[in-house]
């Protein structure tokens, strides 16, 4: 039973909509953001590298025994470490499935280093499904401005830098194919013309049957009460500068070719 992981480029991208959409399926439970993957990934990377580096001590131990073998950093083999990490995730996220009438689990995450985190989950769960998800950066920023959450950043454009760093991986076809992932644009997912085919794409990829309830969930959100008043021209220019400064001119132009310029605030 494959897990499903959603990695969004930034906050305020509509990742909760995809989470809710999949959670109304019959057997899949997508949990919310773990908020620990950054330090967890660091520990994962260091520990796996260390365990692999000292695996030779098992050969020494087999040849010389405990009396003579050099064993100050003797650790279980790296495969055992991976099994331990799998057990952590399966126990943490699989333990309450029956309570909600589900058989499979996953989670969504909205942080920097999305691709590296996806690689980690693919290492632990080779059959898992990875969904990368993004939204127009101007709409992301306008949405952030409307929340208290935006006040928590020391630099108000830090989320845009996170977005840019994730997007450089999301548009890298070779990287996406390497993980067998799909990439979903929020705008397509909620578009009146494209939404049905996008819903079918996501449902099929996640291995769930598209139901009327799932469709209604999406349409309910599309018909929400959120409104856009536009961004000031200087803010749009600053967003462009931040993305260009983060990615470089050539890559920035490639990424931004996916998006139209935003509506500007009146007055």
Distance between the termini: 54 Å
Low-confidence stretches: none
> Helix amount, in percent?
55-70%
Oligomer: single chain
Run of helices and strands: EHEHHHEHEHHHEHHHHH
Number of helices: 13
Mean pLDDT, to the nearest integer, reads 92
Trace the largest sheet across and list its strands.
2-3-1-4-5
What gross morphology would you assign?
globular
Question: Quick one: how many beta strands?
Answer: 5
Provide the gyration radius in Å: 22 Å
Beta fraction: 5-15%
Structural class: alpha/beta
The biggest beta sheet reads: 5 strands, parallel
Descriptive overview:
- With 267 residues, the protein is α/β, with parallel strands linked by helices.
- Helix content is 55%, strand content 9%.
- It is built from 13 helices and 5 strands.
- The protein has a 5-stranded parallel beta sheet with strand order 2-3-1-4-5, sandwiched between helices.
- Helix 2 packs antiparallel against helix 4, helix 7 crosses helix 12 and helix 12 packs across helix 13.
- The longest helix has 17 residues.
- The model has no long low-confidence stretch (mean pLDDT 92).
How is this fold's topology laid out?
Elements: E1 4-8, H1 15-23, E2 28-31, H2 37-53, H3 56-68, H4 78-94, E3 104-109, H5 114-124, E4 129-134, H6 137-145, H7 158-170, H8 173-179, E5 182-185, H9 186-190, H10 195-206, H11 212-222, H12 233-247, H13 249-256
Parallel strand pairs: 1-3, 1-4, 2-3, 4-5
Helix pairs in contact: 1-11, 2-4, 7-12, 12-13
In short:
This protein is an alpha/beta fold and 267 residues long. Helix content is 55%, strand content 9%. The termini are far apart.
